[in-house]
Amino acid sequence: MNFASLSLSLGLALAASLTTPAHAASPASSPAFRGTVVQVTDGDSVKVRPLDGGSLVTVRIVGIDAPEICQAGGPQAREALRERIGQQVVTVSEGRPDAYRRRLARVGTDEEPDLGRWLVSQGHAWSWEPRRGGGPYGPQELLARLQGRGLWAEGSAMEPRAFRRSHGPCHRR
């Protein structure tokens, strides 16, 4: 692919991302809330204590897949997210539970309303959503790859689902 084609593809993808919502809530979704981040588990999961005093909520940031914590890039992704939002108040969008009872939701701060987009643009995660092509942040991932940011600096990044298939989950090690 030549530079002109790549530039055109990137421009079209970016334009599409501006008109496509990053997350659409399902009918079984939980309402949005604000809370304090009490733990950053890995590059795409946090634990949040609601400001209204409710129970601790484990949130998986929707639309991205960060490296496993035992995988190359995993500790760096967790640290980047921790530095960006650790102990801060965040807004957790409406979301549905995943197979692990985490809430799949968009997470943001007043300064950074979409942390999934930020993580992908910094090269700390892949844009990913089941059954949806390049995911909601495809243009940001492409730009991070082209600029050699984060995971793309070495050029040998392995998607987390491929890593889990070949190595198993980190918690079983």
CATH topology: OB fold (Dihydrolipoamide Acetyltransferase, E2P)
Strand content: 15-25%
- What is the alpha-carbon Rg in Å? 16 Å
- CATH uppermost class: Mainly Beta
Question: What's the total helix number?
Answer: 5
User: How would you state the average pLDDT, rounded?
Assistant: 84
Number of strands: 9
| Amino- and carboxy-terminal Cα gap | 41 Å
Structural class, from secondary structure content? alpha+beta
Spans with pLDDT under 50 lasting ≥5 residues? 1-27
List the main descriptive attributes of the protein structure presented here:
two-stranded antiparallel ribbon, disordered N terminus, alpha+beta, 173 residues, 21% strand, globular, 5 helices, OB fold (Dihydrolipoamide Acetyltransferase, E2P), 7-stranded mixed β-sheet
Strand and helix layout:
Blueprint: H1 3-19, E1 33-42, E2 45-50, E3 57-61, E4 64-65, H2 74-85, E5 89-92, E6 96-97, E7 103-105, E8 107-108, H3 115-121, E9 126-127, H4 138-147, H5 160-167
Parallel strand pairs: 3-7
Antiparallel strand pairs: 1-2, 1-5, 2-3, 4-9, 5-8, 6-7
Helix pairs in contact: 1-4, 3-4
Structural summary, described in words:
The protein has 173 residues and is of the alpha+beta class. α1 (3-19) packs antiparallel against α4 and α3 runs parallel beside α4. A 7-stranded mixed beta sheet has the order 6-7-3-2-1-5-8. The chain has a two-stranded antiparallel ribbon with strand order 4-9. The protein is globular and about 45 Å long. It has one domain: OB fold (Dihydrolipoamide Acetyltransferase, E2P) (Beta Barrel). The chain is 31% helix and 21% strand. It starts with a helix and ends in a 6-residue tail after the last helix.
